[in-house]
Design goal:
alpha/beta, six-stranded mixed beta sheet, 16% strand
Amino acid sequence: MKLKLALLGLIAAGLIATAAHAEVSEVRISKGFGILYLPLIVMENQKLLEKHAKEAGLGDVKVSWLSLDGGNVINDAMMAGTLDFAGTGAPGFVTLWSKAKGIPNVEVVGVSGMSSTSLWLNTNKPEIKSLKDFSSADKIALPGIKTSLAAVVLQMIVAKEFGEENYAKLDPLTVSLPHPEALAALVSGKTEINAHFTSPPFQYVEAKSPNIHRVLSSTDYLGNITLDVTFAPKKFVDANPKMTQAFIDALDEANDLIAKDKKMAAEIFSKSSKVKVEPADAQEMIEDKDAKFDTTPNGIMNFADFMHRAGLIKTVPSKWSDMFVPQLADRKGS
């Protein structure tokens, strides 16, 4: 009897230990709008995380996708515990990483780089030819004031144009609006919005309108750096190392598909886009010389250093890899 009880105890202990080390069977991921999210869009369409999770021995994993736009919205969802992985603009991630660094159960960590391209500042006001032409009467739409990707990239450009101490010079003109709504407002010309700082496909769609012209391109000021990344709660990646690696592997495969079959990637994007984009037009955007899709971050420290100098973050990493999962440590990022 004692032997039987002992065996039952060992079995129970084994089951408890197995349960304690079991990884999640459901993953929640957010993506935004536009070409910058193409790797996640391809991952969803091709069910690549499901594939790599199964190959990692995690069984049949349920993957739920959400569409969120703007760093503040994504950060709030992550802090509320409703997301496991999120695609977001690099500045939004850097802000949250710095704010949560060292706080148990709140810390976040970068999982991968994702994409880069050129952001355009478009306007429907003929007299605006440069940043110097904007006045207090103008309104610039972007998703999430101050902390979104577009907001911080615009601040970095303004700092180069007017001096670093004036980086926030145009902040009072910015209005928080998701890209699809901002596009509609700018093209209609019937609202206070007369400029939009945006990414593909929205900038291309706007440029086809006869009353819209481009004021500037971000790469002319900042070069080609990673604009969007993925990140997750640190406690999640610590508890789910296999799932985290499966996510990275899935993103690598998505990027390989984009590189090898741009036509297929364009068709996938066209079907998922919130605004009508023909596959041929999407392919043109993917083939743009400034469009790059890479799991390895490039130039993330540009954001961290600027945001620290501007007082937007208090904690600054000594190197890019301080902000990302150990699985990326051997990659040549920056």
